[in-house]
Design brief:
The protein contains 9 helices and 11 strands. It is an alpha+beta fold. The chain has a domain of 79 residues. The strands form 3 sheets. A 5-stranded antiparallel sheet has the order 7-6-5-8-9. α2 packs across α3, α3 packs antiparallel against α4 and α4 crosses α9.
């Protein structure tokens, strides 16, 4: 859905969020998830993500949500070797040095998850359209009503990264590691993302959780256990250590781990899981702790 149209449809909720963010999230949660949001004693994963949006204001979160700024955080956490090659960065799309780029590359605008241009043949790329897309994306603001305050705080820019591809000729798979209080618990494998998009859930020991998915449906594939699984779990621990919860995304190319991104509120906390029971089971893994009104608490 076009972002401008989405903003128009959601305008009442965007306005309400400015005056009463908790009430607005309760309304949106009920509409999207189909059950009442409990913020005093949240138990499901999606409920706890709403709590994080409202009450967890870790100062690192805005930087980690920006595809350029996060690179420095990854280095500071001792994982710089898994960063993809950065070919160019800047604030003006018209400055992209197309002539100097390789035949294959990826252009990204840093404050959005879908603002990507994948170029597999530079000679066939419409450079003028690519620049126009980037200009449009740079002006795009996140919907306030979703409550993800940490997006768009860093000034958005354009980055160009090395094009990476899978070893088997299939679409590159995402390995999304869900970490709770600094410990990896689930691995979601996203496949065929640009066609049917499916997701399958595994334990950190690579045991498939039968029938479990997070809104896209199971693929039916049996994915081989990655040879670099122990290394990927180590990187996930390091990168999630500063946060109550983080989803650390990786790619695997030639058995090597490549960093993708860090996400704090998977699906904005509105994904429809394969079952309420799985939503509840994921929620059990996350311990919310902090202070409110001068009092320490743990949920």
């Amino acid at each position: 859905m076009d972002n401008r149209f989405k903003n128009f449809v959601l305008m009442p909720l965007n306005l309400l969020y400015q005056f009463d963010s908790e009430l607005e999230l309760r309304i949106l949660f009920r509409l999207k998830c189909g059950y009442k949001l409990d913020l005093k004693s949240p138990v499901t994963y999606n409920e706890k993500l709403q709590w994080i949006k409202l009450y967890d204001h870790n100062e690192l979160m805005p930087k980690c949500c920006d595809k350029f700024a996060v690179r420095q955080i990854v280095r500071e956490l001792g994982c710089g070797e898994i960063l993809n090659d950065l070919l160019w960065e800047g604030f003006r799309p018209e400055d992209i040095p197309f002539a100097e780029l390789p035949d294959k590359f990826v252009i990204k605008v840093t404050h959005g998850s879908t603002f990507n241009i994948i170029c597999t043949d530079k000679n066939r790329l419409n450079k003028e359209k690519a620049v126009q897309k980037c200009r449009k994306w740079l002006r795009t603001k996140f919907l306030p009503c979703y409550g993800e305050w940490f997006y768009g705080i860093e000034p958005p820019r354009i980055i160009v990264e090395k094009y990476i591809e899978s070893d088997d000729g299939c679409q590159l798979r995402d390995y999304k590691v869900f970490c709770f209080n600094g410990e990896p618990v689930y691995i979601r494998v996203d496949s065929d993302r640009f066609t049917v998009h499916r997701d399958d859930v595994y334990t950190t020991e690579w045991e498939r959780i039968s029938g479990a998915h997070m809104g896209h449906g199971c693929s039916g594939y049996e994915f081989a256990r990655p040879k670099c699984l122990p290394e990927m779990m180590d990187y996930a621990r390091k990168l999630s250590a500063p946060f109550l919860h983080a989803r650390i995304d990786f790619y695997i190319v030639k058995d090597a781990v490549i960093f993708g991104e860090i996400t704090f509120t998977n699906g904005a906390g509105f994904d429809k899981f394969s079952s309420y029971e799985f939503d509840l089971e994921m929620g059990k893994q996350l311990e919310l702790r902090g202070s409110k009104n001068g009092k320490s608490f743990c949920i």
